Amino acid sequence: xxxxxxxxxxxxxxxxxxxxxxxxxxxxxxxxxxxxxxxxxxxxxxxxxxxxxxxxxxxxxxxxxxxxxxxxxxxxxxxxxxxxxxxxxxxxxxxxxxxxxx
Length: 102
What we know:
Number of helices: 1
Radius of gyration: 26 Å
Low-confidence stretches: 1-5
Shape: elongated
């Protein structure tokens, strides 16, 4: 089979495949100058941290506490990812992530 562009047409009751000859593959590059809309380039909204002192917390069952910790870490990871994406499109727009929690 020779190198080429393969075109196929499928109609009810018949199938036909036609190969069109091509001398060599031609790369296609498209320059994209589109900028994202302003509402898509807003940095992630990070609320203030939860209080650390023992008087501010109720006693939570371990399963609920662990679920809340997983939820908070996932939120932080998503916010960091959003900021990285915005900085890729508009460099320096969002502060660098400071969350080092594991």
